[in-house]
Amino acid sequence: MRHRNVLGALLLASVGLLAASCSSSSSSGSPKPSTPNASPTTTAQVIESQTVTIDGKTVPVPTEDGTDPIKPYGDTGQQVILSSSGVLPRSLYASLDQPVVWTNLTSKPVTLTLNHVPGVAPQVIQPGRSWSWNPVGQLSFSYTSSAGGTGYVYSGVFGH
Q1: What's the number of domains the chain is made of?
Q2: Strands 91-94 and 139-145
């Protein structure tokens, strides 16, 4: 019983300290205007159409199975779409020893950087074009697109 009282007292003291540390007063006396937390999205809008037009040219929109659009947050397969609204999917679960293909569906060249992957230089992908790279073996890494967005590849999660 005594053990519960000690734990209760410690919990009450911790809550009091937490509440005190969360409250603050401005030294200037004037309230600061609040701004909403704006965080850039790294996940693009789903592209429902089978093609897009870039600079007057029709470009097929990649899919994993030939019919279903690539999912925005997580998908299995080998395809990544780079768009002006972000990357699709944000997390790709890729097969082992198969090339991952990034396709630029913007109207400008996009620089793709594989983060912390030794020996792979940033790649400039022209509008409507693709670049592929084969992560050999089990490997997880992030990448960034100059069009906006960060994505993640988890290679070898499912084997062959």
Answers
A1: 1
A2: unpaired
